[in-house]
Amino acid sequence: MADTLKPYSMITDFVNGQEVPNIGAEENRQAVAKYLVIGKGYSKDDIEVDVKIEMAIGGENYCSRVDLVVRIPDANQLIMAIKCAAGSLGSREREIIAAARLLEDYQIPYAVVSDGKTAIVLDTVSGKKTGAGMAAIPSKEAAISMLDSYQPISLPADRLEREKLIFRTYDSENVNVQRNI
Predict the structure, then answer these.
(1) How large is the C-alpha radius of gyration of the chain?
(2) Would you place residue 180 in the very low, low, confident or very high pLDDT band (cuts 50, 70, 90)?
């Protein structure tokens, strides 16, 4: 790892047991992951950490990570993309909506931004807020029930490039993250 301006400690990731640098919103991410398992009924196997997101923008490759995604294994369907933030949640809503629209060939139903204490839950397709607070995050039971009538919706081709630019613009402002160490 490269030298950093500020020393950091390591903590054990709740989901995968790996040692990770405790920088930025890492403690918040750990709190969200624990809440998903303990409070919302997901298993650790339902949660993916630091999911790679890659796209071509203007002929150049842009690669980043999404903090957490939640998959319903029986349906093999991503149900939720989560951005863990250390500061203002409202300033990260658009970033996670763009990520949830780009991560798969369909729009992931829920986009969530959380600081580990509260959350904003958004409908990815409409971009509208559906709830606030940790309790608003859908439980595994609710997510499975929602999938019974859910039809995956692709992002319209004419919006793809715009969403890529939006994601990159917000994501490139994330300076205190593991990938920059």
Answers:
(1) 16
(2) very low
Q: How far apart are CA 39 and CA 59, in angstroms?
A: 43
Give the architecture-level CATH label for domain 10-175: Alpha-Beta Complex (3.90)
The residue with tokens 């692709």 is: 154
Long-range CB pairs of 119-123, under 8 A, 24+ apart, other chains included: 119/32, 119/89, 120/89, 120/90, 120/93, 122/93, 122/96, 122/97
Q: Is the dihedral of CA 159, 178, 45, 43 positive or negative?
A: negative
Beta strands in the chain (DSSP E): 10-12, 19-21, 47-57, 60-72, 77-84, 110-114, 119-123, 129-132
Least Cα distance to 177 among 6, 24, 48 occurs for 24
Q: Where are the domains of the chain?
A: 10-175
pTM over 0.85: yes
55-80: pLDDT as tens digits? 999 899 999 999 999 999 888 899 99
Task: Name the amino acid, one letter, at 61.
Answer: N
Give me the numbers of helices (H) and strands (E) for the chain, helices first please.
4, 8
CB atoms within 10 A of CB 117: 12
- How many residues appear in the chain? 181
Backbone φ and ψ for 107, nearest 5 degrees, come out as -80, 120
